[in-house]
Amino acid sequence: MTNSSPSPATDRRTVLRGSLAASAALALPATAAAVAGTVAGAAPAQARSGRPSAEWGVQTGDVTSSSGLVWIRSDRPARMLVETSATESFRRARTWHGPLLGPGTDFTGTTPLRGLPAGEQVHYRVTLADPDDPRRTGEPVYGTFRTAPARRRQGVRFLWSGDIAGQGWGINPDIGGYRAYDDMRRLDPDFFLCSGDTVYADGPLVPSVTLPDGRVWRNLVTEEKSKVAETLDEYRGQFRYNLLDHNVRRFNAQVPTIVQWDDHEVRNNWYPGQILDDVRYQEKNVDVLAARSIQAFGEYFPVPTLRARGEDRRVHRVVRYGPLLDVFVLDMRSFRNANSPGRQADDTTGILGAEQLDWLKRELSRSRAVWKVIAADMPIGLVVPDGTANIEAIAQGDPGAPLGRELQIADLLRYIKHRRITGTVWLTADVHYTSAQHYEPEGAAFKDFAPFWEFVSGPLAAGGFQANALDGTFGPNRVFVQAPDRPNVSPMESPQYFGEVDIDGGSGELTVRLRAEGNKVLFTKVLKPGRVGQ
User: Fold this and answer.
1) Intervals of CATH 2.60.40.380 along the chain
2) pLDDT tens digits, residue range 210-254?
3) Which CATH superfamily is domain 58-147 in?
4) Cα separation of 111 and 226, whole Å?
5) What does DSSP say about strands 94-101 and 78-85: parallel, antiparallel, or unpaired?
6) I need a surface site. Which of 81, 220, 444, 497 has the fewest CB within 10 A?
7) DSSP letters along 165-212, please?
8) Residues carrying CATH 3.60.21.70, the chain
9) Helix/strand/coil (H, E, C) string of 115-136?
């Protein structure tokens, strides 16, 4: 189904001008000046004269009706200062004193904002000050975001996708970099749900790749992107890389993000306890690599639960976005069992771990939101293999009764049905194409669940792949799919994908649009509120 792209509702969207435009137009960071197709190391130059600089832009994360996190990175030690205002003139600005940015966090920092007005546009500017002389400050960096509405009638609209800089396709200046980010920014959503594979730490880039038709893809390459990431600094460089793209920085200055991780933040198809058999790695213990990656992930994304200490530090969380929407962010990586053929008749660990599954059930039961989006970094009924024998996701290709990780999902789906939890919708990425699956008990081997939808989008800036096979255990019916006909198709040959969710404040209806680069709508589905299953 093809529909024209609706214009953003001007009565609830602020036209961004002046200071934000100037901030978003930051040039490529000077720490990454291109030299002969390769970019020099991007570590902060502490010895530079002058004032602190924030060439990596700003971003906000996990914005609610009253709170959010503001992020920035300095080029040297600096004190972070944030001002917020209802107007671009910054009259009656409120000041927030942030942390001291230093080498312990790779000169990144976040400042929590609390007590914000609900359903309003918030303008902010971040100033970096010399810690030894507060009068020596850098140029302010500007951004804006909307807080979640306190009232249902305002509605909510957000985008989702994932899979960035994968399969050898990085920032290509010849085509304008990550163009899909500019498409998304022009839609001016309330927020962006980044569904994992935010970087490809195991995917080195080379300066150029010749495509099948003879054209040449040219990558911007940094030192850290020239090899697989192993050290903490190399992981930091992976997350820093995407901020070299002007589209990303401009998008971040305008649209808040809810972010989760999957495998490529560490290494392809990893699981806890894995010991690598990969000659590219000197460090073979995946748990060591994952610890370094999650530290860098928390430094480069504003995630409130990653600011916690010890066992409270986690990726999975609930972001409550007003009366219409709760977003349940899953971590299908950190607590899973080892990848296997997935034929176990008893599996309490599964893909979420027992504790996270209990948490999800509890939070779904507590939710009073009209819609409950389950943000899954891996799909449910799509068969995602790991080699020739093992399974990477949930479905293992056997269309019979649940086995292996399917047992945990069956338990969750049964719980949703029997507790009569309404308005659940699953969103995911990971497989590098876009599709819509409707899960129906009538055609399933396991029948004790209410019908539900799973929508897939991505990649946002990576290689495209053919559609995965479906597993009949939960009765998926593929209603729509668009995918390449061969593996690892470059972004110059196949469009990138992202999805849009639009919740109407009057009717409560949720509309999903699967979009392709250029803002073309490929498929639309409207769901009614207040139902257990759709």
Assistant:
1) 58-147
2) 999 999 999 999 999 999 999 999 999 999 999 999 999 999 999
3) Purple acid phosphatase-like, N-terminal (2.60.40.380)
4) 32
5) antiparallel
6) 81
7) S-TT----GGGTSSHHHHHHHHH--SEEEEES--S-TT----SEEE-T
8) 152-527
9) CCCCCCEEEEEEEEEECCEEEE
pLDDT band, residue 49 (cuts 50/70/90): low
How far is the C-alpha of 57 from the C-alpha of 533, rounded, in Å?
A: 41
User: How would you list the strands of the sheet with 108-114, edge to edge?
Assistant: 108-114, 67-73, 58-61, 257-260, 191-195, 156-161, 497-503, 510-516, 520-527
Between CA 96 and CA 73 the distance in angstroms is 16
Which residues face 514 on adjacent strands?
499, 523
DSSP state of 27: P
Q: DSSP class of residue 526?
A: E
To the nearest 10°, report the CA torsion of 435, 439, 444, 446: 120
Alpha carbons 282 and 266: distance in angstroms, whole number: 14
CA 349 to chain centre: 25
Give which of 424, 499, 488, 434 is closest to 462, Cα–Cα.
Answer: 488
We find that the CATH architecture of domain 152-527 is: 4-Layer Sandwich (3.60)
Listed range (32-46, 190-204, 501-515) with the worst mean pLDDT: 32-46
Give exposure, 37-76, as e/b (b: 16+ Cβ within 10 Å): ebbeebbbeeeeeebbbbbbbbbbbbbbbeebbbbbbbbb
Please answer whether residues 121 and 144 qualify as being in contact, where contact means their C-beta atoms are separated by less than 8 angstroms: yes
Confidence of residue 29 (pLDDT cuts 50, 70, 90): low
Q: What is the pLDDT of residue 50?
A: 80
> Pairing mode, if any, of strands 510-516 and 497-503?
antiparallel
C-alpha pair distances (Å), 210 with each of 171, 216, 462, 492: 15, 4, 16, 11
**Which tens digit of pLDDT belongs to each residue from 370-379?**
999 999 999 9
Token look-up 């899953």 returns: 330
Tell me how far apart the alpha carbons of residues 181 and 469 are, in angstroms, rounded to a whole number.
Answer: 29
Helices within 253-319 (DSSP H only)? 286-300
Q: Express each pLDDT in 331-353 by its tens digit.
A: 999 999 999 999 999 999 999 99
Q: Is residue 35 packed enough to be buried (19+ CB in 10 Å), middle (13-18) or exposed (0-12)?
A: exposed
44: left (phi over 0), alpha (psi -120 to 50) or beta: beta
User: Rounded to an integer, what distance in angstroms lies between the CA atom of residue 530 and that of residue 421?
Assistant: 9
Count of C-beta atoms within a 10 Å radius of residue 383: 19
Per-residue pLDDT tens for 434-463? Answer: 999 999 999 999 999 999 999 999 999 999
User: Cα angle at 297 between 412 and 456, to 5 degrees?
Assistant: 45
The position carrying tokens 């207040």 is 530
